[in-house]
Design goal:
Largest sheet: 7 strands, mixed
Strand content: 15-25%
Helix content: 25-40%
Structural class: alpha/beta
Number of helices: 16
Radius of gyration: 23 Å
Distance between the termini: 42 Å
Number of strands: 16
């Protein structure tokens, strides 16, 4: 489309009578969403941030343990870029890595410390207590004990709550993005450039669907780990944002690269994350006989990049018949362990394991999506007026394998930049944002059997775990395709007739996201990073 054609559509929008009451709609309330909402509100924009959870802090950020990259001794942006590119298995975008390294530490200081007052741990000299993590060449990770995400999330939400132009709504589930080509009542809008004008949003209390029209929309819905049988992710992380963007026609990238965290607690009924910080602080990864085995797979041993450690554990278990590997930090003083890792120590005690005296049984589990909705350096997607930030997006930073503690920093950097840009645009170019009439939501009343939904979820999760998991092959992927393609059609059939609920929306999104990961894996025949094919 030519520049003149684009301007014609802009003029047409400005002639329409209806202007959205929301300047910036942010979908998701983790660090990426909170950073975007805060930045947009500080530009004078009217911001609405929605979350499907009962409380805004519930999400992946809240459960992040390890920390966030800052600036270590003898560190430099160039050194951080080098570490990111090395961990990314040759697929990280150097420009994205340079942006993170240049902007990240400054935003940690200005936004998290000075504006939000995050209480990071302090060392004996009064500076930030910086720790090491796998594949980092220097100690540069700022943290709050082993509950960094909680400290950041609660502080950011408190700061956002002081912005008069920002509103936070809980128990609101985004159903679909509103686009001109899909939802305008004017049939000629199908010829307009792909443009997002807000979202259909399900109110879980009234059970009605709101048409939230917005000048700019930012997706910050987090990850997709819950499409796998074993994961570190909380209940809501089923790929909602990817699924909505996929249906709207947004470009998605690198969906095959799903990172498995090497060390989650091996205990019946749960996979509790055991932070990489333990290994950074000297914990040894050993087999059941107490032998360190990772040196056979990488010169950095237990501190190798995550994909290599996860596969090393998988291989050791396969060769020895072991049910799990073990993390051993018993050589460190017990009082220090309890102070440095209070959350992990307490959670393991609940499982009957005293980590100051006993080794921790660990196995890999689905943890982080390195791919997502393709965005530029300001979070803009291939659809006009739609941005994305955080794990739902693909900035190119992580490549084929994420470097530890880059995720929170990416949320902060791209969330802030997306919010800044969206807020400025919505306020300064208000007349350009009029929207056409949008078709109202059509309600259905057929009851949806919860047993069917539970079985469908089990099928999705077992299929993704067994066939699209840590180790993949052509035959496994083909089997997954047969199962998920049929299930996708079946879920679609009862979705269009069924009474709407948060659970039904999540199931529809979960199978759509699973297919997106699977199809990307089928197309990517080269083993690289998190996408490991035995054939």
């Amino acid at each position: 489309m030519s520049r003149d054609q684009g301007n014609d559509w802009t003029r047409r929008f400005s002639e329409m009578p209806h202007t959205p009451e929301i300047d910036v709609l942010v979908i998701g309330s983790g660090l990426a969403g909170a950073a975007a909402a805060l930045a947009a509100a500080r530009q004078g924009a009217r911001v609405v941030m929605i979350t499907k959870t009962d409380r805004p802090e519930e999400g992946n950020t809240w459960y992040a343990q390890g920390g966030i990259i800052y600036h270590g001794a003898n560190d430099s942006p160039e050194r951080l870029v080098s570490d990111i590119l090395a961990a990314g298995a040759g697929l990280s975008d150097p420009a994205a890595a340079a942006l993170l390294a240049r902007e990240g530490p400054r935003l940690v200081k200005e936004v998290l410390i000075e504006q939000a007052g995050v209480p990071f741990d302090i060392n004996g000299e009064g500076g930030l207590d910086l720790t090491s993590e796998a594949a980092h060449s220097v100690a540069r990770i700022a943290h709050y004990q082993d509950a960094t995400g909680r400290a950041i999330e609660s502080s950011m939400l408190d700061r956002l709550g002081r912005e008069p132009g920002a509103t936070v709504l809980c128990r609101r589930t985004a159903v679909d993005l509103l686009t001109l080509s899909h939802h305008s009542r004017d049939p000629l809008d199908v010829y307009a450039p792909p443009t997002c004008v807000g979202a259909y949003v399900f109110d879980q209390e009234t059970r009605r669907v709101e048409t939230m029209l917005a000048k700019e929309t930012i997706l910050a819905t987090g990850g997709l780990g819950r499409v796998y049988l074993h994961t570190t992710n909380p209940a809501g992380a089923c790929g909602d944002g990817v699924a909505m963007a996929y249906r709207a026609g947004a470009r998605c990238l690198n969906m095959q690269f799903v990172q498995f965290h090497p060390t989650t607690l091996y205990h019946p009924g749960e996979r509790f994350l055991i932070s990489e910080s333990l290994r950074g602080e000297g914990a040894r990864l050993v087999d059941p006989a107490g032998r360190e085995f990772m040196n056979a797979y990488h010169p950095d041993g237990s501190l190798a990049p995550r994909d290599i450690v996860a596969r090393g554990i998988h291989r050791m278990m396969h060769e020895t018949g072991a049910e799990c590997a073990f993390l051993d930090i018993t050589h460190r003083p017990a009082a220090w362990v309890r102070k440095r890792f209070p959350q992990i120590h307490a959670r393991c005690l609940e499982a009957g394991i005293d980590i100051t005296r006993e080794r921790i049984p660990v196995v890999p589990a689905a943890h982080y999506s390195c791919g997502g909705i393709a965005v530029d350096d300001r979070g803009r997607t291939s659809i006009r007026r739609l941005r994305a930030a955080g794990e739902v997006s693909c900035t190119g930073l992580h490549g084929a394998n994420r470097l530890a503690s880059t995720s929170l920093l990416e949320c902060l950097v791209w969330g802030t930049r997306a919010g800044d840009d969206a807020g400025q645009a919505a306020v300064s170019r208000s007349s350009e944002y009029a929207v056409p009439e949008v078709a109202p939501w059509q309600y259905e009343t057929e009851p949806v059997d919860p047993a069917l939904m539970a079985q469908d979820w089990l099928t999705i999760r077992q299929t993704m775990w067994n066939y699209v998991g840590l180790v993949r092959s052509r035959r496994r992927l083909e089997r997954a395709h047969e199962i998920l393609r049929e299930l996708h059609m079946e879920i679609g059939r009862f979705y269009v007739r069924g009474e709407l609920s948060d659970e039904l929306i999540g199931l529809r999104n979960g199978v759509q996201t699973s297919l997106a990961v699977l199809l990307a894996a089928m197309e990517a025949r080269e083993s690289r990073g998190c996408h490991y094919r035995v054939d």
